[in-house]
């Protein structure tokens, strides 16, 4: 069986290699899955560079989500039956032909869901769902402020806003994005290209109970949003895009304005999917994952288009994941190895 492996951390182009490994056999309570597609997320690059919040033991295989087909069941496992299309709930190392998973982390995929969407159903869609529907518990009529509204997570949040009828104040960094976010249903859209965008946010906040926010930009942008939280408000910081490729440590700093934080008794809190998956009972995680899969299958949630890459073209996939490619999420077609 072929697998991508890195034995040390560093530039993904230098540390990643293809290795021939023995075919794994499912043990008690395990399921063997033949991987079809696995995305190249920025977090995979952070992991190979040794900069992620959770690092695997080395040598390791990248890939934190995938879609595949059940190949074989270990003893004591009743199903899903071989041949069933499945996704895995927080099982790492999916850039390989065959992967072992604890049986309870193997979730069948609805028939109507494409492989492309199933392969990327966990990291961004579950993040969007949990932050809005669980952590912030948004109800119809509530307001949510978000940064990088044009990101994949941001667009999913806008779709949820439509279906769950909460309202959004959106911040984007390019003026050209404003009409797109409005077309997606954003109620208020502000661009940080405007020098006075903080004032615009203050004006937009008037008369609204802007007590919930999510931010994946951090730096001055996130701090400005925190400043406009309503009394008792809470902002979840889930990304730090200000520090491009995590190479500018100063951009990780958030100059939060203390008096507003104190007098408003507001909170700025980190949010990390992997932490949430670790502290939440597995049944609850699986139930939310299944709900998100159903929404994707019905078209109630839609992901931006993806771009398939053969494993031989890994350099292109890494480049697309690292840069500002607009061609779609890079997906590794690991089933194509078998055909070679
Ligand atoms: N904490 C967690 O567990 C968790 C889970 C999932 C995702 N995330 C994080 O969420 C963020 C978004 O992920 P994604 O996959 O949705 O992103 P994505 O689809 O790749 O989109 C990135 C977006 O961010 C914008 N952007 C990039 N740098 C920016 C900056 N310095 N200031 C303002 N906007 C900027 C881009 O705008 P342009 O269109 O102008 O380029 C683009 O709209 C990432 O930081 C990711 O690591 C975190």
Automatic annotation (TrEMBL):
Which residue ranges does the record assign to the Enoyl reductase (ER) domain?
10-332
Uppermost EC category = oxidoreductase
Q: Output the Pfam families linked to this UniProt entry.
A: ADH_N, ADH_zinc_N
Q: Which reaction does it catalyse?
A: a 2,3-saturated acyl-[ACP] + NADP(+) = a (2E)-enoyl-[ACP] + NADPH + H(+)
Q: Which InterPro entries match?
A: ADH-like_C, ADH-like_N, ER, GroES-like_sf, Mito_Enoyl-ACP_Reductase, NAD(P)-bd_dom_sf
Q: Which domain of life is it from?
A: Bacteria
> Its Enzyme Commission number?
1.3.1.104
Keyword annotations for this protein, in alphabetical order, are: Fatty acid biosynthesis, Fatty acid metabolism, Lipid biosynthesis, Lipid metabolism, NADP, Oxidoreductase, Transit peptide
What family, per the record?
A: Belongs to the zinc-containing alcohol dehydrogenase family. Quinone oxidoreductase subfamily.
Provide the protein name.
enoyl-[acyl-carrier-protein] reductase
Organismal lineage: Bacteria, Pseudomonadati, Pseudomonadota, Alphaproteobacteria, Hyphomicrobiales
Give the gene name: mecR
